[in-house]
Amino acid sequence: MTPAKPRLTIIDTDPGIDDAIGILLALISPTFTIAGITTVAGNIGIESTTRNAGRLLAFSDRGDIPVFQGAAAPISRAGPEPLNLHGEDGIGGVALPDPTRLPESQPAVEWLADFLLDQPAGSVDVLALGPLTNLARLALERPEAAGRIGRIIAMGGAIHEHGNVGPRSEFNLWADPEAAAVVVASGMPLILIPLDVTRRVRATREFVETLSASEKPMAVMVASLIESYFEAQTNRESRPLHDPCVMLYALAPELFRIEELRLIVDTGNGEMAGALTIDPKGSPVQVALGVDGPGALDRLAETLSAVG
């Protein structure tokens, strides 16, 4: 069987420990050709998320991939406070080299538009790991370019699960509800990976030990990142590996159960900000509602350990 041609891909991200794991997975997988990384404020401020993207590329010896700094704040409200669980540097204090290449001077949304208009329509995927501010601005400011995206696979939201920043709100959508509402209603092909799925993908300490024992540099680095993602030394399972589920869906969609739901995003200012509601008047979105958690971890380990 002829291997599938690598898919031209942009990663929009706010690294972030789990973002870092997803980015490293994408960098090592032959399934993706990473055209660029665009950054957004979210887990931590924009300067740190942009620097962390460069650090991950430096570790991976991928200085050929450009980084474009994106939105420093939501579309129309104050930005969230940095999440303590990612540490002061946003990446759990795990040792990474300094960036070998400065971020590009062109703003992220401008580059996204130019790049999409330069490629065949439908040929570029976006893997979205943070608040959807950059993609919303693209849809609002450059709709002719946004309409050329092949698909957006985004980590965000909660359907039947309790939220992680409110009763029904998940962090990425809560951080910029207006942006989430724009993207959901935009007509851009959207596959949403919510808490309903990501909470079923958690690493055990045995899994971390197996990655470390492989002695493959990428696997060992991911093991270190996951190790920093345990809530306490006594925990046997890590926090959910939210963002790597985006890459895992792109790699192995058969591990996920997808349903089309019509969704509305709450753009109020209360505790329901960013919450998703299923409504006949909502916009159609492909939503992952089930996952083979052990199978996802197996695919993560196999991919990370396949290359020296």
Defining traits:
single chain, 308 residues, alpha/beta, Inosine-uridine Nucleoside N-ribohydrolase, Chain A, transmembrane, hydrolase activity, hydrolase, IUNH, transmembrane helix
Task: Report what the structure shows.
It is a single chain. By secondary structure, the chain is α/β, with parallel strands linked by helices. It has a single domain (7-305), classed as Inosine-uridine Nucleoside N-ribohydrolase, Chain A. It is built from 12 helices and 9 strands. A 9-stranded mixed sheet has the order 3-2-1-4-5-6-9-7-8, with helices on both faces. Strand 2, helix 2 and strand 3 form a beta-alpha-beta unit. The two termini are 24 Å apart. The model has no long low-confidence stretch (mean pLDDT 93).
Summarize the structure.
Helix content is 35%, strand content 18%.
Gyration radius from CA atoms, angstroms: 18 Å
Q: State the order of secondary-structure elements, H for helix, E for strand.
A: EHEHEHEHHEHHEHHHHEEEH
CATH topology: Inosine-uridine Nucleoside N-ribohydrolase, Chain A
End-to-end CA span: 24 Å
Total of domains: 1
Write the layout of secondary structure elements.
Layout: E1 7-13, H1 17-28, E2 32-39, H2 46-59, E3 67-69, H3 108-118, E4 124-128, H4 133-141, H5 143-146, E5 149-155, H6 171-175, H7 177-185, E6 190-193, H8 195-198, H9 205-213, H10 217-227, H11 244-251, E7 256-265, E8 276-278, E9 283-291, H12 293-305
Parallel strand pairs: 1-2, 1-4, 2-3, 4-5, 5-6, 6-9
Antiparallel strand pairs: 7-8, 7-9
Pfam families: IU_nuc_hydro (PF01156)
Transmembrane segments: 20-46
Organism: Microvirga terrestris
